[in-house]
Amino acid sequence: MPTELLFRDDAYLREAEARIVAADETGLVLDRTLFYAQGGGQPGDRGRIVREGGTEIAILDTVYGPDKSIVLHKVAPGEAGLTPGERVRLVLDWPLRHARMRVHTALHLLSVALPYPVTGGAIGDGEGRLDFDIPDAGLDKEAVTAQLRAMIAQDAAVTDRWISDDELLANPSLVKTMSVKPPIGSGRVRLVAIDGLDLQPCGGTHVRRTAEIGTATVTAIEKKGKQNRRVRLSLA
Question: Is the pTM of this model over 0.85?
Answer without folding.
Answer: yes
